[in-house]
Amino acid sequence: MGHRAGLGEPGQRPLISGLFDAKMANVVLEFKASAGDSEPQNRPVLVVGQLSNLQQLSWAQVKGKLQPIVSKETWQSALSALNPNPTDSCPLYLSHATVAALPSRVSRHNSPSSAHFLTRLLRTSLPGGASRCIVMVCERSEVFASGCAIARAFPLFSRRSASSRRADKKTVVVEFIIVGQDNGPLDLTTLECLSNAADGVRLAARIVDTPCNEMNTDHFLEEIKAVGNELGITPTIIRGEELKQKGFGGIYGVGKAAEHPPALAVLSHTPEGATQTIAWVGKGIVYDTGGLSIKGKTTMPGMKRDCGGAAAILGAFKATVKQGFKDTLHAIFCLAENAVGPKATRPDDIHTLYSGKTVEINNTDAEGRLVLSDGVVYASKDLSADIILDMATLTGAQGISTGKYHAAVMTNSEQWEAACVRAGRSSGDLAHPLVYCPELHFSEFTSAVADMKNSVADRENAQSSCAGLFIGSHLGFDWSGVWVHVDIASPVHAGERATGFGVALLMALFGQASEDPLLNLVSPLGAADPPSGDQMERDCKRRRLV
């Protein structure tokens, strides 16, 4: 990213990136139709967007946030000086006012919003201060992804002693200036949607960032209850020995050695007039030592993040229900700590999962698929779900398959595979398909003494696909509903910070069932061809989400 001396004051040095955590923490984020006018000395400002969008702004649209210390000539000179490759920023006056440019173009597997670059630009270019302003310049179709990307830049969790002593909250006001078609100001409904989505992203990131001594299964259940309380929903909780009695051999087997017992928790939104039932199933391993197949000293740090799927589903459920959701929606949390102790599952043990199928354990560090298998079968058998999506930090191999930015998606439906990719681009939570081929890959789990093993024979044969197939096998590969598996192991974090990944993806993917116009806009249906007559007849009773 390029930095140059400020045009208003020569010799200005770029912000020191090491300070970003302090200036980004303890922030109250507000989305407003208009942030109002204020001099940059009193309220530092960052104006950000693609260069072509910034060039469409009139001086009248930004002068109230820049005058008197930044003149029209300085503003125009800054725009002329910007040369994004892929991004660029230019201080306008000391550290009080900055303009920053996003990439001018992106490839087909990236989001048109350049969401990842936006988050990075905020971390490096947003001025410090107790009251700050971000002016986001984009097209209306990019508002949702941009709002979620902005939220990612402001983590909530910190245990730095200096931040705990400093109780004062900092305010960041975000104003969108829409360019292109439909370029009026954002209405209150859109602002509310952005606020709830941002809260969901930051909630998920806070849970993932919180270490297990503060986010064990007890604490996670409290987070679920708090969301339920806010939405007027009482969670269903099956816990400890009751899991064993009811046949949840996967969740119980993984979590039975921990001090805090495992649990299956469910939040259910059941509106009148619902035409189908959707279940989101989240992997909530609050810490993963690997169990007796223990991780090493370099691979275990960071395993507090193994609850990223459950955290994303909690954040998305809260925001989605607040915005109004027309169909029945269940959020299922499979919570356990994969600990080492006298009660720990051993390699060679055989567990019977909720599906009734038996699993020979050959790797206790392949535990996420065990808890999720119980979760998806509960969604099908007990909740009669038509569409089941599981989300998990499932495999290290995901990062090798689809990288640090794209979730890996596998599904029994070609239509939903394409929808996930489209929702990824429209939400900024990128997604890319994995191979779905059970007839070639499921033999990796062959066991001589049980229905299957829990880990593959050949670790060089589509590992992430195989891990997903294990979960799907408990539903049955001939299951008539839609099953989607989303592996978010790498995109759940960027460096040492959680991203809240998955919240925006879920909100967009199921946006067609929302009552919210912004979520309707970013839903995959918006980019799909209208259904043919025979499709409409088949789907007459069901709301087509994609």
Automatic annotation (TrEMBL):
Domain Cytosol aminopeptidase: 363-370
One Pfam short name: Pdase_M17_N2
Keywords in alphabetical order: Aminopeptidase, Hydrolase, Protease
Coiled-coil annotated residue ranges, if any: none
InterPro entries membership: Leucine_aapep/pepB, NPEPL1_N, Peptidase_M17_C
GO biological process: proteolysis
Presence of keyword Protease: yes
Methyltransferase listed as a keyword: no
GO cellular component: cytoplasm
Alphabetized GO MF terms: manganese ion binding; metalloaminopeptidase activity
Segments for region (Disordered): 524-546
Annotated PANTHER family: AMINOPEPTIDASE NPEPL1-RELATED, LEUCINE AMINOPEPTIDASE-RELATED
Entry's family note: Belongs to the peptidase M17 family.
Protein name, as recorded: Cytosol aminopeptidase domain-containing protein
Species in which this protein is naturally found: Conger conger
